[in-house]
Design goal:
The complex is a heterodimer of chains A (313) and B (267). With 313 residues, chain A is of the alpha/beta class. Chain A is 27% helix and 27% strand. Chain A has a 9-stranded mixed sheet, with helices on both faces. A 5-stranded parallel sheet of chain A has the order 14-13-15-16-17. In chain B, the strands form 2 sheets. Chain B has a 9-stranded mixed sheet with strand order 9-8-7-10-6-1-4-5-11, sandwiched between helices. A two-stranded antiparallel ribbon of chain B has the order 2-3. The chains are: A alpha/beta (313), B alpha/beta (267).
């Protein structure tokens, strides 16, 4: 049975939960050949994750070029050309999709992105148009290159001792020099795309996100924002949920002062449970909310935050 | 400098979208507009030119829009021209219908190679397909440095140096490369202008050159749905969500919300 190549996603040696999900999903499809592309000193966590989640083989490749994308393309292309894998799985994010795109060109392989499930025959499920349509697609040329969204499955550990596979990588030069790196500013809140709970604010906040943030912190949630809020400069673009922002699918989505235009719904309507707070009883967000409160978010949200904290203590 | 900005006509991102019987996006019933995210790339090119000798007649630089799409994509392109780009190339050919990102990047790369462009600017993704792979694919095909997800862009033409701040969930990376290169820009980089009346009038006189696949040098069997390396097996509309409980806050709405979450065992 041919291997399934899995690129272990990490930022400066910190592995993501999405990487453990990806190895878990890949185990069901064939023996997993995990690949980690690292800079000096970053190998430990990817190596440990490959063993914890049951990879059969592991290749750790030191990047000789500072570019965020091309060293991973070089590594995966060299391994794929040498070993003819059944498929190549990569985490779907800004970086993963760029790696996958270049790799598809280089290998002459078909590409599917933003996949939420991969079947035994490597056909893939995608949720498109903001979750309104479910599509099954298949790669018809070359080893399928598939990027899988975070939160697509639950990571399940399965200890293994991966065989270390040394590979010769045909390194290319990106022509790019990286002159400085700054780690993302972590506010102590979970990543938007990986969070199991998200509390979002929109126009109704009038620029004051403090109640939204308080409820998020009470719930251990990430903070999202509608396009109206990010366009107004009330919250960073990186937190935007919607058609032109991030697509999320958490267990619980709380929309505070968000009317629920299609632009926003497209990014969150596949959330498992949706709660909405809005002054306007006719706001379209209530059409998809499992629980809606018609009222002023500045009264409702702080009361909810206090209620959540009271239950915890 | 010759700037080339890749643009796409897409269905309005505020409208409902669905698949047609051919498993392709049904574009007929939806307003077609210039992809929102491409406006940031056009704006950035305009700002760079305005700060260093101008574009258009008498200017030191030129800004060409490059698009692939049906003939009616000229409507979206016209908006970019009314913002201030100088001219446009539209690659339009019946054989292109149903092309995937791989074919799209092939066609665009061929057109870029023969354009004499020094720099290619793109938005990070189109709001219809949302794959966010074409800029990286262009860099791969052209063999040009890839400077993508730029939240800041500086060009020093004299020193032949382009510097960006790549801003993603991975943090901020300052990167530099020489020209020619491929750059994609994020929404944070600027605030695109609205076309002025003068700009709209001027755009009516600007040239949109339509080219066929043969003009670009790509054969018809390299593109289109038949040559796509992936295929839709089937698709289905997800059943719409139905509204659940709705309460009116009479001073206890927050607590009722918490009770709902507790019933769901979320808190």
């Amino acid at each position: 049975m041919a291997d399934v190549l899995v690129l272990i996603d990490h930022t400066a040696g910190l592995v993501s939960r999405a990487a453990s999900e990806l190895i878990t999903a890949a185990r069901a499809l064939g023996p997993v050949h995990a690949v980690a592309v690292v800079r000096a000193g970053e190998a430990d966590a990817p190596r440990a994750m490959a063993a914890q989640f049951g990879a059969s083989k592991l290749s750790v490749i030191e990047a000789v070029d500072g570019h965020p994308i091309t060293p991973s393309v070089d590594a995966l292309a060299s391994i794929a050309q040498a070993s003819a894998p059944a498929a190549i799985l990569i985490t779907s994010g800004a970086k993963g999709k760029e790696i996958a795109g270049r790799l598809a060109v280089r290998l002459g392989s078909g590409l599917l992105t933003d996949v939420i499930d991969v079947a035994q025959d490597f056909s893939a499920t995608q949720s498109i148009f903001g979750g309104s349509t479910v599509v099954h697609s298949k790669v018809t040329h070359g080893a399928p290159i598939i990027t899988v969204r975070p939160n697509a499955c639950e990571p399940v550990a399965s200890e293994s001792t991966p065989e270390i596979v040394d590979v010769t990588v045909a390194h290319t030069s990106s022509g790019v020099t990286v002159t400085s790196r700054q780690a993302p500013v972590k506010g102590g809140r979970p990543e938007l795309t990986e969070a199991s709970i998200i509390v979002s604010g929109g126009r109704g906040t009038n620029g004051d996100f403090s109640p939204v943030e308080s409820l998020a912190d009470a719930l251990g949630a990430a903070v999202g924002a509608s396009r109206a809020a990010t366009d107004a400069g009330w919250y960073p673009h990186s937190n935007q949920v919607g058609q032109t922002g991030k697509t999320v699918s958490p267990q619980l989505y709380v929309a505070c002062g968000i009317s629920g235009a299609i632009q926003h719904r497209a990014g969150m309507q596949t959330s498992k449970t949706i709660v909405a707070i809005n002054k306007d009883a006719d706001a379209p967000i209530f059409e998809l909310a499992d629980f809606g409160v018609v009222g002023d978010l500045f009264n409702v949200v702080p009361q909810a935050a206090a209620g959540v904290l009271a239950r915890k203590s | 400098m010759k700037f080339l900005v890749c643009v796409k006509q897409v269905p309005d991102s505020w409208a409902e979208k669905k698949l047609g019987a051919d498993s392709r996006l049904d574009r007929a019933g939806v307003d077609a507009v210039l992809n929102d995210l491409d406006e940031y790339a056009i704006e950035e090119a305009l700002r760079i030119c305005e700060n260093s000798g101008g574009n258009g007649e008498g200017g030191e630089h030129s800004i060409t829009l490059l698009s692939m799409g049906p003939d009616r994509a000229t409507e979206a392109i016209r908006k970019g021209l009314s913002m201030g780009a100088d001219n446009a190339i539209l690659i339009s050919d019946e054989a292109l219908a149903g092309s995937d990102a791989l074919a799209t990047s092939l066609v665009l790369a061929k057109a870029i190679e023969s354009s004499g462009a020094n720099i290619v600017l793109c938005g990070t993704e189109s709001t219809d397909a949302r794959m966010s792979v074409v800029p990286a694919m262009l860099a791969e095909r052209l063999g040009w440095p890839q400077l993508t997800f730029a939240g800041e862009l500086k060009i020093d033409a004299g020193a032949n140096k382009v510097t960006i701040k790549r801003m993603t969930d991975e943090g901020i990376e300052e990167m530099e490369a020489s020209l020619p290169c491929v750059v994609s820009v994020i929404e944070k980089i600027n605030e695109p202008r609205y076309p002025s009346f003068k700009g709209i009038m001027a755009a009516k006189k600007k040239t949109i050159e339509t080219r066929s696949l043969a003009d670009v040098g790509v054969s018809t069997d390299q593109v289109g749905s038949a040559s796509s390396w992936s295929a839709v097996v089937d698709s289905a509309l997800r059943p719409p969500r139905s509204a659940g409980i709705k309460v009116v806050d009479e001073g206890n709405g927050g607590n009722e919300l918490v009770s709902f979450l507790a019933d769901k065992k979320i808190v």
